[in-house]
Amino acid sequence: MSKLEQIDQLTQHLFAQRKVRDPASDFELFKPKNIDDAFAVQQQMIELSGNAVTGWKCLVPLDNGQLIFAPLLQQQLINKLVVQSLLT
Q1: Is the distance from CB of 58 to CB of 72 less than 8 angstroms?
Q2: How far apart are CA 58 and CA 85, in angstroms?
Q3: CA gap 63, 67 in Å, rounded
Q4: In angstroms, rounded to a whole number, what is the distance separating the alpha carbons of residues 52 and 46?
Q5: What is the 3-state secondary structure (H, E, C) of 20-84?
Q6: CA 11 to chain centre
Q7: 61: burial class by Cβ within 10 Å (0-12, 13-18, 19+)?
Q8: pLDDT band at 33 (very low <50, low <70, confident <90, very high)
Q9: pLDDT, position 85
């Protein structure tokens, strides 16, 4: 199985976990080994979600130089704003 196929399977698995009561993020067939693989999974998750990216959140780089970042999706931000406006 090619790396692209492995990334696709992992993405499908993780996306499906968003809809289950007790998600299981363990997926033994493929685990990203570098930032490029992880970013490819993120990009496919964004595409599957059908949401636009409105920004990015990121941490200060780790001591080893590793970057940790994630997209801010438009619908998630809208949902959060709606909930906050209902609570105030």
Answers
A1: no
A2: 26
A3: 10
A4: 8
A5: CCCCCCCCCCCCCCCHHHHHHHHHHHHHHHCCCEEEEEECCCCCCCCCCEEEEEHHHHHHHHHHH
A6: 9
A7: exposed
A8: confident
A9: 82
